[in-house]
Amino acid sequence: MINNQNILSRRQFIKTFGIIAAGMTLMPKAAFSETRKPITHAIPSSGERIPVVGMGTSRTFDAGGDPAMMTQLGQVLQAFFDNGGTVVDSSPMYGSAEMVVGKLLKTMPDRSKLFAATKVWTYGRQSGIDQMQKSMQLMGVGVMDLMQIHNLRDWKIHLPTLREWKEAGKIRYIGITTSHGRFHSELMQIMRTEDLDFVQFSYNIGNRTVENSLLPLAADRGMATLINRPFQRGSLFRKVKGKTLPDWASEFDCKSWGQFFLKYVVSHPAVTNVIPATSKVHHMVDNMGANFGRLPSASIRKRMERYFEKL
Ligand SMILES: NC(=O)c1ccc[n+]([C@@H]2O[C@H](COP(=O)([O-])OP(=O)(O)OC[C@H]3O[C@@H](n4cnc5c(N)ncnc54)[C@H](OP(=O)(O)O)[C@@H]3O)[C@@H](O)[C@H]2O)c1
Prior knowledge:
By secondary structure, the chain is α/β, with parallel strands linked by helices. The chain has a single domain (9-310), classed as TIM Barrel. The protein has helices at 10-35, 67-82, 97-106, 125-139, 155-167, 184-193, 214-221, 235-240, 257-266, 281-288, 298-310; strands spanning 40-42, 49-51, 55-56, 87-89, 115-120, 144-149, 171-177, 198-202, 224-228, 273-274.
């Protein structure tokens, strides 16, 4: 028989399940800090090591001032730091994303862990300077760890400014970005002739064309690589929907398709860091699983390719 004492009051319910929910978000942190160290790769130009899984902010962090989304994205960013993440990639092109990252960081004790990366995406020297100053102010950073020229835009004009800023200590590393196969021949020409710390481009198990071009060139030239679109904007998940992860994924500590895709990317010898984007806490926790454990060997990578192609 049901009586009032058997029914949890709304307050009790929130208290009980609120504590459970809080415990669930803390669990990965405890696991990380007590027993696990993230996988790290070195930035060739300095030797500084960074955890292999970073995060992107395109679309996912363009939340304006929406209070519910700000709360959710705060939890996403916290889960990222809790699981050893440091590299956050943004751009003035991503609407309010830089501002959202900056606002959220203000409330976080973990903000000192941040490796901040953004981009200049405009034409003209002064316009570039103004935009970079605004980005630093929006993200709330005194020194930008990585400043990149977005999609090669006006790169001949911006590159000297980036070098001056690096010399002056306003930025630590400089780079250039592109994505989904655009501008590859021009980017390769730049990589052959200019000194850059980082290059950013797309690479994933469904689109491996850069294995014969940008990746070996970056390795030859001693440039760190930041890999965007590791899930092909989410379309890789649609391809594997309802499909079982192979048993042998456990050989490289992989428990989900998200980790399968990310570990595939970061196990390429020329890849420094990957920047998947998500607006969901459970996806962030899942993705950050790829920041730990073993990586697939060269022969397992071949097996992953064959398995994925047959799906
Ligand atoms: N030219 C450039 O410089 C350039 C170009 C493109 C991208 N980028 C950078 O690279 C970042 C990543 O690229 P991207 O955002 O285009 O694509 P992406 O990371 O390949 O895919 C993002 C999509 O995957 C979904 N997702 C993430 N984790 C998931 C999981 N565990 N399970 C299921 N779905 C998941 C996200 O949806 P949910 O929100 O639902 O999780 C989102 O729709 C960008 O945010 C940006 O910082 C730079």
